[in-house]
Amino acid sequence: MSPFLAEWWDLRDLGNLVGAILDWIGDRGAPSWVPYVLSGIIGIAAVLLWALLSQLAFIWIERRVLGRMQVRLGPNRVGPWGLLQPLADALKVLAKEMVTPSNADRILYWLAPVAVVVPAILVLAVFPFSPGMVVADLNVGVLYIVAVTSTATIAVFMAGWASSNKYSLLGAMRTVAMLISYEVVQVLALLSATAFTGSMRLLDVVAWQDRYNAWLLFLQPLALLSFIIASAVEVNRTPSDIAEAESEIVAGYHTEYGGIRWGMFQLAEYVAGFAVAATITTLWLGGWTLWGLEEWVPGWLIFLAKLYGTFFLFIWLRGTLPRVRIDQLMGFAWKFLLPLMLLNVLLVGAERVVWAETEAPAGVVLPAFAVLNLALTVAMIVGWGALAGGLRPQMRPKRPLLVREVGGIYYQPMP
Amino acid sequence: MAMRTEPFVVNVGPQHPSTHGVFRLRLTLDGERIVECQMVMGYLHRSMEKLAEERSYTQNIPFTDRTDYLAAMTGNLAYCLAVEKLASVPVPPRAQWIRTIMAELQRIASHCMAIGTFVNDCGAWHTPLLYMMREREKVLDLFELACGARLTTNYMRIGGVSRDLPPEFLPRLRDFVREMPQRIAEYEDLLVENEILIARSRGIGVLPADKAIAYSVSGPMLRGSGVAWDLRKADPYAAYDQVEFDIPVGTNGDCYDRFMVRLAEMRQSVRILEQALDMIPSGPYQTPVPLALQPPPGEAYGRIESPRGELGFYVVSDGGPAPFRFHIRSPSLINLTPLPELVKGMTVADAIVILGSVDIVVGEVDR
Fold this sequence. Notes:
Chain A is an all-alpha fold. Chain A contains 15 helices and 1 strand. Classes of the chains: A mainly alpha, B alpha+beta. At the A-B interface, α7, α11, α13, α14 and β1 of A face β1, α4, α5, α7 and β6 of B. β1 (401-403) of chain A pairs antiparallel with β6 (247-249) of chain B.
């Protein structure tokens, strides 16, 4: 891979442009802290701008795509193809009165929407959009993602508690139970990925995948699957949108929020979704690399394409699946995903040791691991599934009997 | 030391996304478990039974659209049957067949709604519902073609139907009948073996056959509990004695069986429509009756198998132009009575699924 041109006009890495501007300022004799602070501000502004614009775009995309999935048109009145619909929605949300319930805990009620947005945006800082485009290049990037995203739990509980609404409280309690359970699964999935690459620094993980020309998607399919499921829970997407569960508890923890406060929750949900998609892209899908194409196409475009593709998966799930019940979801985390992930971590450790001991070339070891892991993934899912759930008779669908005569009783209760 | 928990009362409704109208459940919860459930109804009470005593027999037909607003045709039909029995009005064969066609179309439309909202209650994000809305729309288009209205049809008349079928109705019905089995197969692909749907509804809200009979529930709820009972066969009306169809019967009596029975009934309805298309005769569509019909003193009970169960109209005449007493035996209300027992010990999420599987129309519960 040829080195990136370091010229400011090289669009393949917008970091060059920022670097050129900062150099120019430094050359004018500004004190040394000015470019430092400025680079941070530019990074934050860029990430915020990207997050907000993506959110607006994705509100439109989600509504259009869901519309198509549901044999209807989706928004098509505001602007061409309804493109201005998100803006109209945003204006409506901004213009609405902000009602505070009379029994609410006012400080917490006011604080919760802010507290839920902050971690969602903070987590975006560590993702490398391309080698030079990362706001904070932390050497514990994966740990940072876990640490920051898990604080959203507190904000959600604050919202549910402060609203003094029973639906909100139910939603908040469900959220806490759920997020804490799936946090464990998520961490184990991330652990499998980072243990394979040997680094928690996201740039290193991408570089590792690039060096061996092997996406972790192929090496760690089970971890990816668990991470997707756990993330669907974390960002409240449909098979597990239990915390909001429109048909049961109205809107869960944000039932009492209206106007821009509700908009903040919505923003946090989307941005958290982007963060999850970015994590999957970086750790499992090779980040900004695409088998040499990154030399011709800006790496950040490849990254964004993968990210949006991953996010689309969540929209698709939402358009297809019903919701599971809270106890089923919790059981799934503790009885199914957690044992599998523990086995997977063990497997990763064993493979790393084998690789280090035999000192075999990566071209031999990695395909072997990929095949082995895929086979074991399928075997573990099918085996554990049969053991844990598939053998239960009530899970087998049964067609109704077709009877010609009235009067008979065919009731046979399940054992 | 055992931890002490306090019961917690939640009002599900009257304004709630899943109560299918203005209906309220007062749930006493222990955590997520339901300790007690009280139903509060009457928010949609319009005093139909009393109003009907002030109006002539023909004027009462529009009321029957508005009891069960998702199945107006069957409401019309049950009432007309009662009055025809009371006044001994004969119905010409073509009208009988038109009634059969309309009742079965209505059943398909109503079951589309029932299954769609049921899966919505299980948490699907509107996709199955909107798939089914597509087919319901076609049924409503056919209704519009026949009588000019889509929802409150007011189509049946005492002694027949209000107007004959337009010439393009039967070809369009044939297209619909040809297309519908593929659509039902589509729903089955999407839902029947859906792991999450099974996990949510299998073994939930089990109503044993003896209890179902004791509560006198009817319709898909009774058949889901394994009782083969269908008024179309047990007490045939319209042209049902001349068509062949099967009664789908569940064996477990849970929410999943109720859902599956409805799905299978849609196939049977298509089957009946196919036969009706071949067998519908020409001829008069109505027996002329005076607008101010004055049946002889007496009483009559007309009952049909509506999409929700046994819909009965009990009409008493004192010889005057208006009924002396007018009573509706509405399946929604009676199917709802076992609900508190079904949801006890279940979670909130289950209660919503069970309520969805009962398939109530609040207009019919409260009348």
